[in-house]
Amino acid sequence: MKKTLWISVAVAALLAVPSCKKEPAGEAQAQQQLQEAQKKLEEAEQQAAEARRQLEEAQQKAAQAEQQRQLEEARKKLEQAQKQAADARRQLDQARKSAATAGAQSAAQPPSGAASPSASSPADSSPASTSVAPAPPAPKPVTVPAGTQVVIRTTTALSTKDMKTGERFAATLEQPLVVDGVTLAPKGAEVEGIVVESDPGGRVKGVAQIGVALRSLQTAAGKVEIQTGTYVTEARSSVKKDVTRGAIMTGVGAAIGAIAGGGKGAAVGAGVGAGAGTATAVATRGDPAAIPAESVLTFQLKAPVTVTVK
User: In terms of pTM, does the model score above 0.70?
Assistant: First the structure.
């Protein structure tokens, strides 16, 4: 019995020895597996970082690609807008040419009362037979020779009492100015004149005098400067009026002298009255020289004038 017990103990001891040997081997294997797992984790983390970097690069490239795409779309839209603007400009030029052609054709058409050639011939309405308006005539210079008469009508009175030398006045053309069958200025055209001389005259000797001339004329080509001779008129003489005034003053003086001292007083009074009459005449200026309104005056050109007629 004891022998059997010892055999059992021995067998159990023998069986226990291998199991003790197996525990260190399993722990080493687990440690190795742990190290391998850690290594795989590190490799996985590295791969994840690389994948993240690649993702970021891909996102940057995608953003750049999107910007490039938007830039290309903007460039295409710009080219399309430029093309549309060029087409619109071309259409505008065509419309202007069409309007100019229509205006020329309208000017070349006969009056509404005249017979229309296109009405009698259907073939004339084709585009090939459209007539072109003739070119307008070139401007033609017309020269008014020196000595040509210019007849005007004054619109206001011109007087030495109101006008001074150098002052301007307005008038109208009384007769049309025609040269070689061409009317350069119609009747009623505006005329501008100048007072060449305005002399009130002496107090006893001489009379008032006014002289006028023309300086410009409104023609079909516009305002034209001209030079004409001078039209001169004088006031009526006031000698008779002054003599009458002196006689009256002499008679008045004689009467006063006779009352004061008889015959001798009459002689003295007459002398005094005559002197007073003369002084009154000296102090009195003569009548002004005047050209009434609506007066028709004729002038002659002193120098030729060229007018360009369109």
Answer: no
Asked if 143 and 306 count as a contact pair (C-beta separation under 8 A), the reply is yes
Distance between CA 266 and CA 171 in Å, rounded? 58
**Which two tokens mark 141?**
């210079």
> Rounded to 5 degrees, what are φ and ψ at 13?
-65, -40
Angstrom CA distances, 18 to 22, 31, 168, 286, stand at 6, 21, 151, 173
- Reading the block at residue 55, the tokens are 């993702």
Phi, psi of 290 (to 5 degrees): -145, 150
- Dump pLDDT digits (tens) for 44-65: 999 999 999 999 999 999 999 9
Residues forming a β-bridge with 216? 192, 225
pLDDT tens profile 166-191: 999 999 999 999 999 999 999 999 99
CA distance linking residue 192 with residue 218, whole number of Å: 9
**Residue 280 contacts residue 245 (beta carbons within 8 Å):** yes
Question: What is the number of alpha carbons within 13 Å of residue 288 lying toward its C-beta?
Answer: 13
Q: Residue 239's closest CA among 274, 210, 278?
A: 278
**155: which DSSP letter?**
S
